[in-house]
Amino acid sequence: MKNHISNTAALTFSLLSGLIFGLGLILAGMANPAKVLAFLDIVGLWDPSLGLVMAGAIGIGLIAFAIAKRRKLSYLGFSIQLPTNRVIDKRLVLGSMAFGIGWGLVGICPAPAFVLLGVGSSKGIIFVIAMVIGMGIYELLESCAKSSNK
Amino acid sequence: MLIDWNNFTPWTALAGGALIGVASAIFVLFNGRIAGITGILGGLLRPKLRDIGWRLAFIIGLIAAPFTWLLFAPLPAIQIDASNTLLAVAGLIVGIGTRYGSGCTSGHGVCGISRLSPRSIIATVAFMTTGVITVYVVRHLLGA
């Protein structure tokens, strides 16, 4: 069993997944922040499209993960690592609530942010840099919390 | 509630969503991992040497998507009305929030719900709710 996915086939499938994911975002309209905000604006003139994006993705996802759950190894022989944490805590809920606020402010979430980076949008670049700094702040806060618990 | 029929794009939304599902399916069935951008990117900030390659490859795929699209068709409209300051603030909040919440629209919203994970269903309800409230406050209360 291989735990580390590092051979050429794995890298190729990673690249391919990211590429198809990005093409799906563009086709779906998720790479257009104005359309994302129009979905979240249920009180104004509501564009329900993104509900169907979720439906399309989850429709395929349900089948894929039903298969994945029955297997220990992937088709390339890597261990299938599904999340095991089942705790519903403040971190999960408050973190997700905060994410929703940032998402609602500008209409960009992490995956489309990288598509916008590829488009060369300066606004997309600013968002990605800020998002990576935000994740860096999380790492700092986590390492501080860990060292103060020792 | 008024539906914006002029901008409602059901077929491309479903087809684009299906592609996102296919990408997540390939990722879990071939590489054994969850196609969650928060986790893939976050893992690069705690780098384990052997993990860097596949994480970067996925992100490069995302960045290459618009270039690939352009080989076949012009890109659809992309409109960002937010100011640079607001984008920076929102980016920071998204970065911190997604890491505390262990995921975003891809990891929780698509993969998590597809796994029928209670954690992901709750996370998705949480970020959808605050997303809707935020747009309501910004557009309808503050009138921006």
Keywords:
heterodimer; A: 150 residues; mainly alpha; 2 domains; 6 helices; 71% helix; globular; B: 144 residues
Terminal CA distance of chain B reads 20 Å
Our estimate of the beta-strand percent of chain B is under 5%
Judged by helices, strands and strand pairing, the structural class of chain A is mainly alpha
Helical content of chain B (DSSP H or I, runs of 4+): over 70%
Tally of individual domains of chain B: 1
Secondary-structure element order of chain A, N to C: HHEHHHH
- Low-confidence segments of chain A, given as residue ranges, are none
Q: How are the SSEs placed, and which strands pair?
A:
The complex is a heterodimer of chains A (150) and B (144).
Chain A lengths: L7 H21 L4 H8 L4 E2 L2 H22 L19 H17 L3 H10 L2 H28 L1
Chain B lengths: L1 E2 L6 H22 L5 H6 L6 H22 L13 H17 L4 H10 L3 H24 L3
Helix pairs in contact in B: 5-6
Describe this structure in words.
The complex is a heterodimer of chains A (150) and B (144). Chain A is mainly alpha-helical. Chain A folds into 2 domains: 1-82, no CATH class; 86-150. Helix content of chain A is 71%, strand content 1%. Chain A is built from 6 helices and 1 strand; from the N terminus they run ααβαααα. Chain A has helices at residues 8-28, 33-40, 49-70, 90-106, 110-119, 122-149; one strand at 45-46. The longest helix of chain A has 28 residues, at 122-149. Chain A is globular. Chain A starts with 7 loop residues before the first helix and ends with a helix. With 144 residues, chain B is mainly α. Chain B has one domain (15-141). Helix content of chain B is 70%, strand content 1%. Chain B is built from 6 helices and 1 strand; from the N terminus they run βαααααα. Chain B is globular. The model of chain B has no long low-confidence stretch (mean pLDDT 95).
Task: Give a short synopsis of this structure.
The complex is a heterodimer of chains A (150) and B (144). Chain A contains six helices and one strand; from the N terminus they run H-H-E-H-H-H-H.
